[in-house]
Amino acid sequence: MSNIKNIRCILLSSPYADADDPEIKECFPNGPKRTVGMVEITLENGVTGLGEGYLAVFAPLVFKSIVELCQPYVQGKDGFAIERRVRDLRSVCDYWSLQGAARHVISAFEIALQDAKAKSQGVPIFELLGGAKTDTIQVYGSGGCCDAKGQFEKELDLLSSLGITLYKIRSIKTDIWRTVWALQQAAARGIQVGVDMCQNLADPPQAVDDVVAFIDAVHEKTDHRMVFVEEAIGPDCPEGFKELRRRTDVQVCGGEVITTPKEMIDRLNDGVYDFVQPDASVIGGIGAVMDIYRAAREKQIGVVVHAWGGAAAIMASYQAAFAAAGGTLVEYPMLAFPLAAEMIGDQGRIEGGRLLRPTAAGLGVTLTPEMEARYPFDETAVYSCMLTDWGPPADSYWQE
After folding, report:
1. Are 226 and 187 in contact (CB under 8 A)?
2. CA distances from 226 to 212, 229, 251 (A)
3. What are the tens digits of pLDDT across the range 248-301?
4. Measured between alpha carbons, how far is residue 34 from residues 25, 63, 101 in Å?
5. How far is it, in rounded angstroms, from Cα 377 to Cα 380?
6. Please, what's the b/e burial string for 254-265 (b: 16 or more CB within 10 A of its CB; e: otherwise)?
7. What is the pLDDT of residue 385?
8. Which regions in the chain score pLDDT beneath 50?
C-alpha cells in the first residue's frame, strides 16, 4: 500500500481544431481553444498519477469545486485500494449526483489512482487488469465536423496516411446531400463512413421517423452505405433506439453521455444498442469501462470506447480496451489538440489503421511543469451546449 499524500486539481487550456470548423463556430463562442480538467494524485512513495473528467470541457470551475469537495475524503488513505476509494467518493456525491457531473470527477480520481498504482509497479495499467489481450486495435477516425469540401478532403488525407478505413462524420437529418458526398469521396479511398447525428445535445431530440427518413434518403442517392448511426435519438429515449434498430439494418450505437455502468448495462440487457460507447472520463473510470466490457461479452454486444477528451481521458479508455477481450475498435479524435498530442507522445501510435499497444508505465501520458506553463487555464475556453446555428451550405454545393 501507499497512502495518498497530495491531491491537485489541474485546469489547462489548449488551442483546438480550426476557427473555421463548424464545431468551433457552433460550440466555442470564444474561439478555437479547449480546456481539460485533471486530478493529480501523489502517493507517499513519490509516484504521481493523472486522471481526467470530461466535465471540465464544459464547466471547468464546477469540476474544480467538486474535486476540492472530494479531496478531504481520500487524502491520507491507501491509494492502492482503488475500489474502496471510489466507494468513498460515491458516498460523498451519489445523493446529489448519482448521474452527471460528480461521476466525471470520480472518473478523474479513479483514473489517477490507476495511473499511480501502475506506475508504482512499473507496468501499463492494462497489466493491472489482467494483461493486454491484443497488441493492436483497429481505430476509426472521428471528425467530419465539416461544412466545406476542403475540410473533408484534409481529414480523408489524414486517414489515408494512417491506413484508417473507417471514418465518423457528424450529420443532422437535413444533411442528406452532404452525407452522400462524404460517403462517395470516402469510398473512392476505400474508407467506410459512420454518422454521428449529435442528438446527445438535442432538446427535444429528433423522432425515429426522422432518422429512418434520413438513412433512406441518403441510401437512395448513393450505392455506398453508412456503417452505423451514433446518438441518433436522444439519450433519454432508450425505446426510440430500440425502435430504430427494428427499422434499419444500419448499426445503432450510443452511450457516451451515460455516467453509470448500471444504466449502460441495463440498456445492453434491454437491446437498446448494437454496440455501446463508454467513456472512462465520464462513466466512473477505467474499472467502470471494464464492467461494461464484461457485461457486453455476455450479451455478445460490441464495445467501442468513446475518446474525445484530453490525453488522460483518451488513454484511460484505450488502456481498458487493450485489457478487454472484446476491445476490437476504438475512436481516434482527429481535430488538432496540441496539449493532448504532446502529453500522449509516442504512446498513441497508429500504424496500418491500428493503434499500437502502449508500453509506458501507467496511463502512458506525460505532464511536465513546462507543458503546464505553455497551456495556462483560460476561463473563456469552454464548450457551450447553447449551439449557434450558422446553417449548412446549400445542397447545390454538395451536388456539384
Report:
1. no
2. 13, 8, 9
3. 999 999 999 999 999 999 999 999 999 999 999 999 999 999 999 999 999 999
4. 13, 15, 18
5. 9
6. bbbbbbbbebbb
7. 85
8. none
Question: Given this model, what pLDDT does residue 391 score?
Answer: 64
Q: How far apart are CA 354 and CA 315, in angstroms?
A: 15
Residue with cell 509516484: 47
What is the location of CATH 3.30.390.10 in the chain? 4-124
Q: Is the CB of residue 286 less than 8 Å from the CB of residue 129?
A: yes
The total number of residues written for the chain in this structure: 400
What pLDDT is stored for residue 333 in this prediction?
Answer: 97
Beta strands across the sheet bearing 48-53 = 4-15, 33-43, 48-53
* pLDDT at res. 392: 65
For domain 4-124, give the CATH number.
3.30.390.10
CATH 3.20.20.120 domain residues, the chain: 127-362
Residue 395: predicted pLDDT: 87
How far does CA 340 lie from the centroid of its chain?
13
| Residue 190 backbone zone (phi > 0: left; psi -120 to 50: alpha; other: beta) | left
Give the Å distances, CA to CA, from 32 to 60, 263, 348, 393: 16, 34, 23, 21
Nearest to 210 by CA among 242, 244, 180: 244
What is the structure's pLDDT at 59?
98
- Please give the Cα distance from 235 to 11 (Å, whole number): 28
Report the alpha-carbon distance of residue 361 to residue 348 in Å, rounded.
14
The pairs formed by 384-387 with CB atoms below 8 angstroms and a separation of 24 or more are 384/27, 384/28, 384/29, 385/27, 385/58, 385/201, 387/26, 387/27, 387/201
CATH architecture of 127-362: Alpha-Beta Barrel (3.20)
| Distance in angstroms (rounded) separating the CA atoms of residues 323 and 289 | 10
CB atoms within 10 A of CB 33: 18
Residue 186 to residue 166: CA distance in whole angstroms: 9
Strand bridging mode 136-142 / 48-53: unpaired
